[in-house]
Amino acid sequence: MKLVQTLVVRDEADIVDAQIAYHLNAGVDFVIASDHESLDGTTDILESYVRAGHLLRIPVAGPVREAEWRTHMARLAATDHAADWVINTDADEFWIPRRGSIKEILSAVPQSYGVLWALSRHFVPRTGADEFFADRMTVRVSSDAAMSDPTSPYRPHAKVAHRADSQISVGHGSHTAFSARFRQLPNWHPIEVFHFPFRTQEQYERKGARRAHGDKPLGQYVKAYQAQVEGRIPERFRSLVVDEATLARGEAAGLLVVDTRLRDALCDLRNGRGNDRRAVGYSQEFEVAVAGEGAALRDADLVRVLRSVDGLRARVDAVERRGWGRRRQSPE
Amino acid sequence: MKLVMTLTPGADAEVLDAQIAYHLNAGVDLVLTPTAASQDAEEALERYVRDGYVVKAPSAGAALADRAVGEHGGDWVIDAHAGEFWWPRGEGLKDVLIPIPPRYTIVQALARPFLPRHDGSGSFEDRMTVRRPVEHDLDGEEAAETRLLRPVYRRRPGPGRGGQVPLRAWYPIEVFQFPARGEPGVGEEELSRGVAEETLVVDDRLRDSLRALRGGQGFRLPADGVSALTFRSPDVVDDAAYAVECAAVGEVDLLRLDKHIRELEARIAFLEAQFWPRVLRLLSRLGGGARVRR
Description:
Oligomer: heterodimer
Structural class of chain B: alpha/beta
Structural class of chain A: alpha/beta
CATH architecture of the largest domain in chain A: Alpha-Beta Complex
Mean pLDDT of chain A: 92
Largest sheet of chain B: 11 strands, mixed
Number of strands of chain B: 13
Helix content of chain B: 40-55%
CATH class of the largest domain in chain A: Alpha Beta
Shape of chain A: globular
Distance between the termini of chain A: 66 Å
Number of domains of chain A: 2
Distance between the termini of chain B: 58 Å
Low-confidence stretches of chain B: none
Helix content of chain A: 40-55%
Strand content of chain B: 15-25%
Order of helices and strands of chain B: EHEHEHEEHEHEHEEEHEHEEHH
């Protein structure tokens, strides 16, 4: 089985090397990366993997066209790289299987199914910006109630993996994929995506300011941009950092969890031990927490759908007000 | 961004004074109010009217909100009632409203009805530090959101605008509602039992803020645009706990989604049914007109 990873990246030199090395050691055979005008050394890191034969770098420029770039790479995996499965990633995401390896899980998927979702687990910023992110950021949010705040970086979501398909379409953020050939497995999440959206104050400011003007300016980025304009980035970033007291409170309430799986895996890689840790399954308590977070994801998706329906209702309102709906308001 | 509050004043001058001073420090730029309910309240408003913070308008209800946008250029409008204090879950009311994606024209605020304490001494805010958590405030009531959710309106473009799009399932502002004086209160024993059983919550955020605002010459106001209050952004633990309360409001579920979709289908079906008859009528009118011209 050949597993190809796609990646959209811009200026993530602090994390992208670890991300690619981790996935190549976790079973990924080849990486296709869209490099969007990186200036911070990311391009050099990508080129080192190109020279080693592990990666295809596609330079992209101009306004962000995420869905288009992701779809192009996913199709390329099918047409030019003989992929069987494709995982679609960001530079701040690490795909961690709950049992066995990524390939073993994907191999177990029945042939008629071809699209599944990995559950995102959001890690919170911690103090100590000089340390490697994975050594510091070992605390994640764990809640079975969806945070549907449009300005929160911790909204529940999932990332898509799919069988190779030359006609596949992958949506913005790779949260969705549409395939005419394969059925979807929406409620089984055998893989987790460890997500490290904000790591240092400098990275928070840079990412927020840039993406507040992107093709999908999410509230969390607008908030960072707003703080930058008002000269309040340090205060705003500090409000995101989880200190020891907050951690203790969060653990007691069951809302924060210490999770060192990625730290340990990357430590092994740095010490030349390879990524031979195999996930062997977890406690009942852990599995129940995953089920709870899966339920929160479905609740969050329901909220997203209802918000979209609200948008459609508003558009129908507008059409009715133009005259088409007059009889509806005063039926004959 | 200009934030305007329309306020129906109550009869209690002390509460009204605190309400206006608090909201000006929380980010409100201008308060529009109809005539106050008592002479004392009128006197409490005088200082703010004189300083240009309060404008008295001969309107009420929706007309007052229209004025807030039309005459006073409000980008967002809060419609507050007597005894309400709108508390931002961020560093100020503007701070939570600015990053709301533009497609939402209404942000909803979660009402927090407070219970008076039995002890009648002290200022009103000292006696208002106890409330129920949302799940214990529902009493199995259906459609509780109509009671628990209060809208904040965004100014929308003019003619041809569509309907309102509320931000559902997340409420970035809490509305602390204080009952009128004289209502029976919660005693110490009941409070201890309620806190232990998690049916009552001690919430002293507003009390502390109003204490911070109280000065020798009345409540302090923002100086040179700088608030005399500091609001703290909730941390991730606060937000995760708040998510449980937002879910308890029960605004979003499959049945409601199904109802909304069915209603939308019926409206679209009606519009579709109107389309060709209208086109044919239009064509026939055009044809008739052409004959007349000939």
